[in-house]
Amino acid sequence: MGLCCRFLEILCAILLPPLGVFFRHGCCSLEFCICLVLTILGYIPGMIYAVYVIVAVDPDHHRREYYEPIYP
Q: Which of 27, 50, 64, 69 lies deepest, with the highest CB count within 10 Å?
């Protein structure tokens, strides 16, 4: 993913935290739901969590871990 896209996601996360997480992880993800609840409870916790999720959590790794079959 390009640096420009990451910058725009972080900017969206600062302005409207669930929107930045939505762009990165999608609407029905656990990260989006947590961010939405935190933003409803308080803007600052939602913003901090959104920036953390965008910077630190890799959505592709999460999908590979849970949706690919594991063969012995």
A: 50
Give CA angle at 12 (63, 29), nearest 5°.
Answer: 25
Give the tens place of pLDDT for each residue, 7-45.
888 898 899 999 988 888 888 888 899 999 999 999 999
Rounded distance between C-alpha atoms, residue 45 and residue 68, angstroms: 32
Give the per-residue pLDDT at 14: 92
